[in-house]
Amino acid sequence: MCPPTDVNILLISGARIVGGAERATLQLAKALLEREHQVNAVCPAGEWQAALSGSGIAVHSAPIGGSRNLIAPFFISRAAARSRPDLLMVTTSDQWVWSCFVRRPAHTPRLVLVRHMGLPLSRRVRFLAGRRADAIVAVSPSVREMLLADSAIAPAMVHVISNSTRFAVRQSVPDSSERKHARESLGLPGGVPLIGFMGGINLGKGVEDAMVAAAQARRALGDVHLLVCGRKDTRQQTPGYEELATRHAMGGCVHYRGYLNDVIPALIASDAVVIATRSTLREGLAQTAIDAMACGVPIAGYALGGITDAVGEHDPAAVLARPDDVEDLSRVVIALLTNPELALAIAQRGLIRARQEFDPGLMTEQYEQLFSNVLRQSP
User: Fold this and answer.
1) Are 201 and 237 in contact (CB under 8 A)?
2) Which CATH number belongs to the domain containing residue 92 in this structure?
């Protein structure tokens, strides 16, 4: 069955900032535009709206965010009336609800819901989605399992389409000169083992676990440093990186570079990348793992769904620790830093997996095929 041509898609999102889900959504939207589909969007004003507009996507700015925003269906309906889409593609959970309440005579336009997060949704939200949506996309098997926790959604409705690499996969593992250049570009020390952590100052993402693992490695090996990239979590009282570094005897050895548009230098600068997301937060699909594999950088992480979905469960492209066990995480980090053969094997395995499983063209084709199937369904 050939994918449809010139599908008109209205992207619906309540996001204001650009997080991992938004970066993946923007990548897909740009790929669909390149394949001559039409993509419009409706979202609140903010950083996310600016990113969409800057990529050539027509955006209807509207206050649709929030779980108690009873006027959101009105703004979604108005955007749909203006753009006359074939499909509504909804990427945030509150807007799943509001889009389900939008009146669609004869189910036109069709409704496709996309779930990036591994956190559970309430049964009422899943029940509504199961009755109103034409298809649901889960970005990993773990997310699909969460959506199908009971009979609220029919299994046939949920399709796994993984997010892809955000940049071309390298041909080989970075050499020492490339790592040195990457460190210089970020003002990082050379000649010392460097652990990379891309989860920001976020306790759920495991910044403190990464600190502990780096401190344990420092005690075992000597002068080990930690690079932290990503936003600080402002939704709760999260300590600053200096306080965390002092707490774990890492003062002067933690380098915080905040949010980076281009994570490639930070990844290449690292001897190993640690993914320490806790089971209380969960990962939908660990984009850091996909990015690290594409850069040929070895990974140490917790063996949680979303991480194992990225690196593989059997013969994984990572050295995995027991979930939430920081001592075990420290052990696998030290193993990567002290065993060059292991680190090289993991990095090479990651390059192969990134190339085979997370190709951007494959992701786009899978969405196109899903759109084709949905549009051919009888109302």
Assistant:
1) no
2) 3.40.50.2000
